[in-house]
Amino acid sequence: MNDRRAIKQYQSVNTQSGIVDANPHQLIAMLINGALSRLSSAKGCIERKDFAGKGELLGKSIDIISGLQGCLDMESGGQISSNLDALYDYMVRRLTEASVNNNMEIVDEVIALLREIKTGWDGIPTEFHNNQAAVSAAAI
After folding, report:
1. pLDDT value of residue 23
2. How confident is the model over 24-72, as pLDDT tens digits?
3. What is the 3-state secondary structure (H, E, C) of 114-126?
């Protein structure tokens, strides 16, 4: 087994065990971090003119953002959920545009938006991290 494949397998097992042990708050944090990581990698692909890699990474980022959007509790989350729903929709449209135009500035814009969401998410008090109702009410 080559080193690269071994590292990928280790990362996969490590990620899978992290998912199994994670509370709802941690799962959302993992999704946000995964999107940020893929967006940063997509920027590198644009710089290197690796358009296939860019397309794959932006596609995965869009999938993650769509997953976050799907987790929103529109009943309990109120205006926050509505605002995040619109913001996630905007991010998906912008990433589609970034992919078509190979535009790193748009990717940077979405990274900044996700970092802002991450800051708010990370600011949720620890006592609410294991409470599914509180996590849903926080509306991701």
Report:
1. 84
2. 889 999 999 999 999 999 999 999 999 999 999 999 999 999 999 999 9
3. HHHHHHHHHCCCH
The band of 6, judged by pLDDT with boundaries at 50, 70 and 90, is very low
Burial of 48 (0-12, 13-18, 19+ CB in 10 A): exposed
**In whole angstroms, how far apart are CA 127 and each of 25, 51, 81, 86, 132?**
11, 44, 21, 28, 11
CA distance 100 to 94: 10
Q: Which fold has domain 22-138?
A: Four Helix Bundle (Hemerythrin (Met), subunit A) (1.20.120)
Sorted by where each begins, the domain ranges of the chain are 22-138
